[in-house]
Amino acid sequence: MPIRHLGYVAKNLELENSGIKMQTVRRATFDLYGEDIITEKILHNLNVLYQILEWNIKNDIYAFRLGSELFPWLGNYNVKSFKRFDEIEYECSFIGEYARENNIRLSFHPGPFNVLCSPDNTVVEKTIRELEAHSEIFDLMGYEPSFNTKINIHVGGAYGDKVGALEKWVSNYYKLSESLRQRLVIENDDTTSMYSVQDLYGLHELCNNELPITFDYYHHSLHQDGISEKEALDIVTSTWPKDIVPVTHYSESRREEHLKIITDICRKNGIDIETELPEWPTLYNTYLGWEMIKENAHSDNVNGPINTYGHTIDVMLEAKAKEQALLKLREKQLILENTNN
DNA sequence: CCAGGTCAAGGGAGT
DNA sequence: ACTCCCTTGACCTGG
Questions:
Q1: pTM for this predicted structure
Q2: In this structure, are strands A105-108 and A247-250 parallel, antiparallel, or unpaired?
Q3: DSSP label of A300
Q4: In angstroms, how far is B14 C1' from A47 CA?
Q5: Would you tell me which of A1, A96, A165, A244 could form a disulfide with A142, CB atoms 3.0–4.6 Å apart?
């Protein structure tokens, strides 16, 4: 049973197509209407979330990442001071109870703008406020602080000096509340200037071995830093407490998916890519477009296999096609449990 | 009603 | 300097 829960993130396309979707507001709207519009959106979004969880249960999906837009402009207000806080609190605890009763694992992934090591103290202060606000939502949902309800971020900046940036990160990490630190986890990056699994293991040690690492398969493939996927997974799983199942993120390359679609079409129609493709201008132009796709862009769907190397983990799929991608992957059943290699 | 323009946050990479 | 990528496309407006 190597993958315990296979989950997806942020939204459900099927429900969205039937008009059930999260809402947010622009800054100007927030400034104009303040807590009234935020309250309205929060209550709406919690209702949508309930329907997503309900859909997930029906489809045997027991892990879901909450989008931060659940509470629009989180970190810019104290929800406890809102006139209708009672209602928000009630709905939150209802959701939390519902998720716990059904054994659903929830998590957050605050945006890439949360940078604990920024040289700009205003950014650090805003980051701390926003992360604490995420943690407080889990409090409202009735969760004890735990890595079961993780709040996942990246280091966020290197400034050409990873060591210095990490030192700064650690000093700010200890400014966070105890509750937040019992939820906060750190994820590996996809570029060499940023943080590999090994870099983060160093950070884990600097944080008294209390900061778990979320392993992102695809990011690792783009920034391996000299270690194999298996070695990386061995390392990251060791950073989680024994009684908590580690979480990993899984996605694939949009560029390769694009290329595969074109080559499949060509193969089916007997078109030789090297010599004959230019005779089909539309297809050819689409083909040429693949190089424009950024290397780190995510695909719509994923093919797997996801290799757990004998570890028991939860896997969050980060695919544009969301729950549809999950259903398709599950059909393919391409999940490996290798313990050797 | 819908397509297209625009947006709120920090940082890095590619052009 | 500008655009894309990451979290996550949704909001808002003009035709």
A1: 0.92
A2: unpaired
A3: S
A4: 41
A5: A96
